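Reviewers of the previous submission asked for a worked example of the structure-prediction workflow described in the proposal, so we include one complete record here. The input consisted solely of the amino acid sequence. No template or homolog information was supplied to the procedure at any stage.
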Amino acid sequence: MPSGTRVIVAFDLYGTLLSTESIAKNLATHFDDEKAQSVASAWRRYQLEYTWRLNSMNQYEPFSTVTRNSLSHTLAEHGLELDDTSIKSLMEAYDSLSTFPDVTLALEGIKSHASLSAVIFSNGTDNMVETSVKSSPDLGPHASVFCQIVTVEAVKKYKPHPDVYYHLAEKVGKGKSRGDMEKMWLVSGNPFDIVGSRAIGMQAVWVDRVGNGWTDQLVPGVAGKPTVVVQSLDNIAEIIMGL
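From that input alone, the workflow returned the following structure tokens.
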């Protein structure tokens, strides 16, 4: 099937395919389990906050730098210290995060549908994302499912800035009109990503693994909500094909 007729399904990486919370097991080699969980959660929170602040300031730092700096922030806030070797080890561990349990079945489903074209769409740098995909013991074996890896590095902005979604469209051979954007799907576990993609017209699947329901109220009405909400990626191919 010609690529132009395929439905583009863009999967967010961190927090959607790869569990950022899985870094807690590496942190647990330095701290007790409770402290490790707390650091892992805060690390992710500041990682995202830094990207939004950079967007607001019209500045850019590579995601690898953002990730390291947000770890330093988190350790300082918790009154903790790690030597350079330990920090380097944690950064390397971030490149081999575990997938969520539902990812393998989802990717097998995508692979079986010739009309779907899966890409990874991430805030990470090219090198960081490529390393993460190849090094993840769970995601690596399924790397061939993705026809392309698209990151924000060339744009030097972060989600949910509109330019990153238009960059995605350009990379997969689509136009930037509302009509073209409506033909692409984003799959993400991050509400800010969902709202950003919907703002420029994309279809979006929000992965609500916790099951709390959609609560984001930034943009009122349908425009600020996902097209579909799922609690698992298991049948994502069938869900998209059925809409």
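Residues 23 and 93 are 7 Å apart (CA to CA). We consider this example representative of the routine output the project will generate in years two and three.
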